[in-house]
């Protein structure tokens, strides 16, 4: 989906104001998670996961805005916007992870930590295979084994999980695998499943292509570094058209970042009810006046998740 209204009305939109407003909402949400964590979720590690994850997302979001700022100087160029899809994809994956975890916090938070054990075992097998006979790797491998034993105890792993963590625990899920698990576990409503499936089919494919550089990703990003390609794609007025293409690309990264970050905050507010419902609605109200993508997110999920 191209955000055509953004492109037409971008000069009227106050990016600085919306960025600062959303950033404050994100910080407030993280602080509420840290200070007002519901007592019914007794595992303190869950509070830390949510608190730290929101702060990580906020940092990623702020980094995107720093890179994409209008002012150019020796260390910042508008063409750097072409490097943003991996960061925007991180926000997308965090959004899906929050949706996933919220469906059953007592079940999925312990599983998250168990998957850490799986990763340690994979790390150990790699170290043993390639460096096991090297004297200068002995301390590292011994320390890794100690950490694995500690994690097995802290996660209260069963003998079967310790014997075959790849099969009995698995690795932390991708967005698609999270959707599959929600369907299998029956922990999410049909509306939630439909939403995750919809935005995963739409955004994950696009952001992954831009990150992994499939042919579409190479074409969209690479045309800004090849005059010959730009002439072929944009024609006789290629310089002006390429500049406009870059601005469109840049605008899309800005808006996807804002929308995904607001969606993360909305998921948390919709579940924990910290009292930021109206503030989140206000920000959505501004965005949907300018962005078709924001309107789609709002109508698909957040108008219902954040009732007046």
Overall description:
- The protein is mostly helical and about 300 residues long.
- It is built from 15 helices and no strands.
- The mean pLDDT is about 95.
- The chain has 2 domains: about 5-105 and about 185-305, no CATH class; about 105-170.
Quick structural overview:
This protein is mainly alpha-helical. It is built from 15 helices and no strands. It has 2 domains: 220 residues, no CATH class; 68 residues.
State the helical fraction. Answer: over 70%
Number of strands: 0
Q: Overall pLDDT, averaged?
A: 93
Question: Number of DSSP helices?
Answer: 15
Structurally, the number of domains stands at 2
Structural class: mainly alpha
Low-confidence stretches are none
How do the helices and strands follow one another from N- to C-terminus? HHHHHHHHHHHHHHH
Radius of gyration: 22 Å
Report the β-strand fraction as a percent range. Answer: under 5%
Distance between the termini: 28 Å
| Largest sheet descriptor | none
Described by the principal axes of the CA atoms, the overall outline is globular
What is this structure's SSE topology?
Layout: H1 4-9, H2 15-35, H3 44-67, H4 85-103, H5 105-131, H6 138-154, H7 159-163, H8 165-168, H9 175-185, H10 190-212, H11 215-222, H12 227-234, H13 238-272, H14 277-287, H15 292-305
Helix pairs in contact: 2-3, 2-13, 3-4, 3-13, 4-5, 4-9, 4-10, 4-13, 5-6, 9-10, 10-11, 12-13, 13-14, 13-15
